[in-house]
Specification:
Elements lengths: L1 E5 L5 H11 L5 E5 L12 E4 L8 H11 L2 E6 L5 H6 L1 H5 L4 E2 L4 H8 L1 H10 L7 E2 L2 H9 L7 E5 L14 H15 L5 H4 L7 E5 L4 E9 L5 E13 L2 E8 L2 H14 L3 E10 L2 E8 L6 H6 L4 H9 L4 E3 L4 E3 L1
Parallel strand pairs: 1-2, 1-4, 2-3, 4-5
Antiparallel strand pairs: 6-8, 7-8, 9-10, 9-12, 10-11, 12-13, 14-15
Length: 323
């Protein structure tokens, strides 16, 4: 069974996790637009490919999958996922399983405002969120929210253009700057879908921050949830964390996984304050904090391989899952 990691970047650890899970019964391939991407040095074979927004990108990927008999294709980029989701059937026709959710699930997760709507409609707590300055200023005047606030792109990744204004003047400056900055980043194209409402302002949540790896099988059936408490962040990714056993957060993961029916891993950010779980974001891919779950005993790569191989009884971590 051969595996292809796309937009692989610096996720060297995933090469090793999947290689260990294959145990010599397949190869790991990696693709990236940057010839200096470090993961390309560790894969069994690597490919320099066009950027995801080039018209021939998916033709190149399909040729790689066909020639090297790729069974699992795993994208590590928020920007690639919406495009790959719409090409899923094309890859299935050549025997490659893209580990990507259906388009509407990926679209909901990528659009942070739609994510919050989904969560609220299912009775889950979320931070107060506003789409324009007038609404957030009115909320401030009514005491609905207080400073500091969070200004961030509606379609965002890697903490690009995020700011934490401390007063009204900083709020206006941060909001205007964020709108200008996204035009010069990889978020530009996605933000043009609704540029006037491309920046969100949220209440700042304190409390303990957690990351959930919510695991579904390749048919979107819930399998399990792994929980870690975040101790430090860097560039939007978990830098230090400790895994915990939380029945409350595992039940939250089961609810989200069952409702969303995503495929594979879902990286979920949660704040817990006064016993209430506030869900911030859903990312339908391996998150930067996944290694903490793997080192603590989870093995999602092995689960994905087993599911692709048609096995219904597998160990995702300490739990035996039967589908």
């Amino acid at each position: 069974m051969n595996i292809l990691l796309t937009c692989a970047g610096r996720r060297n650890y995933l090469v090793q996790y999947f290689r260990d899970a294959l145990d010599g019964h397949g190869k790991i391939y990696a693709a990236d637009t940057n010839p200096n991407a470090s993961v390309l040095q560790e894969a069994d074979e690597s490919f320099i490919v066009p950027s995801v927004n080039q018209p021939d990108y998916f033709d190149v990927l399909k040729n790689i999958c066909r020639q090297h008999r790729i069974r699992l294709l795993i994208s590590l980029s928020d920007l690639e996922l919406p495009l790959l989701a719409r090409k899923r059937e094309d890859f299935l026709e050549i025997g490659t399983i893209p580990v990507v959710s259906v388009p509407h699930v990926v679209d909901i997760c990528f659009d942070k405002y739609r994510t919050l709507d989904l969560l609220k409609n299912n009775g889950l707590a979320t931070p107060r969120t506003y789409m324009n300055l007038e609404d957030v200023k009115e909320a401030l005047s009514q005491g609905e929210v207080t400073f500091p606030l969070v200004v961030k792109p509606r379609w965002g990744t890697a903490s690009i253009a995020i700011d934490y204004p401390q007063n009204v003047e900083e709020l206006g400056l941060a909001y205007s700057l964020a709108k200008r900055r996204i035009k010069r980043t990889i978020l530009a194209e996605a933000s043009m879908a609704d540029y006037e409402r491309s920046i969100l302002v949220q209440e700042f949540l304190d409390g303990e921050e957690f990351g959930l790896d919510i695991v579904n099988d390749l048919d979107g059936n819930y399998a399990t949830t792994f929980v870690k408490r975040k101790l430090a962040m860097r560039a939007g990714e978990t830098d230090r964390a400790i895994t915990v056993d939380s029945e409350q957060l595992q039940e939250l993961g089961q609810l989200i996984g069952g409702k969303l029916c995503h495929i594979g891993n879902l990286d979920c950010d949660v704040f817990v304050r006064e016993g209430i779980c506030y869900v911030l974001e859903l990312n339908p891919r391996f998150g930067g904090g996944y290694p903490f779950s793997q080192v603590a005993g989870a093995n999602i790569p092995a689960a994905l391989i087993a599911w692709a191989d048609g096995k219904s009884r597998i160990r995702v971590g300490s739990k035996l899952c039967q589908m």
